[in-house]
Amino acid sequence: MTNYKKAYIAGGCFWGMEDLFRTQPGIIDTEVGYQGGENDNPTYKYHPGHAEGIELTYDPNETSFEKILDYFFRIHNPTTVDQQGNDKGSSYRSAIFYQNEEEKAIAEKVIELVNASGKWDADVVTTLEPFSPFWVAEENHQDYLVKNPNGYTCHYLRFEEPFIK
After folding, report:
1. Are 58 and 27 in contact (CB under 8 A)?
2. DSSP 8-state class, residue 26
3. Three-class SS of residue 53?
4. Among this protein's residues, is 154 annotated catalytic?
5. Which of the residues 1, 47, 124, 157 has the least number of beta carbons within 10 Å of its own beta carbon?
6. Sequence-distant contacts of 98-107: CB under 8 A, at least 24 apart
């Protein structure tokens, strides 16, 4: 019997986030979708207030929520409000959708470590938002960069060294 867990984050365009996370130790599955917005059944063309997010299924025996967040803060710019690369708007905000107070406390701790590291030129603006329904995006957005290897992404590993020691 497996005891997999799920984590919900948003860091700009969901394609790049998914592509990088899929190869991380302990990540079992990835889904891209919409979270934190105003309407049910959002679509790519209509998702007011929703962030382009990712649902990560992970094995807690191989990784942790803390390690996932550490990697998250190394593959996108958490210091820009509603923007990643060329993408602008609240859909592209940096957000952590915590499911309980323990996850919220871990997120606050990791943000504190990221800010204290001085690696970014500004403080983290990532929002901590209570979990809300995660709406799976359309099939053509799932595994997009696998299907379209030359597709657009603004995500890459910016810092090799983890923030968490």
Report:
1. yes
2. T
3. strand
4. no
5. 1
6. 98/128, 98/129, 98/130, 98/131, 99/6, 99/8, 99/131, 103/7, 103/65, 104/128, 106/65, 106/66, 106/69, 107/69
- Asked whether the beta carbons of 64 and 27 are under 8 A apart, the reply is no
For 60, residues 6+ apart whose C-beta sits below 8 A from its C-beta are: 3, 4, 5, 26
Are 137 and 32 in contact, with CB atoms under 8 Å apart? yes
Which one from 9, 10, 13, 154 is the annotated catalytic residue?
A: 13
Tens of pLDDT along the chain (165 residues)? 579 999 999 999 999 999 999 999 999 999 999 999 999 999 999 999 999 999 999 999 999 999 999 999 999 999 999 999 899 999 999 999 999 999 999 999 999 999 999 999 999 999 999 999 999 999 999 999 999 999 999 999 999 999 998
pTM of the model: 0.96
Instruction: Return d(Cα 91, Cα 88) in angstroms, integer.
Output: 8
| Rounded CA separation 92/57 (Å) | 21
Whole-number Å distance between alpha carbons of 26 and 40: 31
Residue owning tokens 């990532």:
126
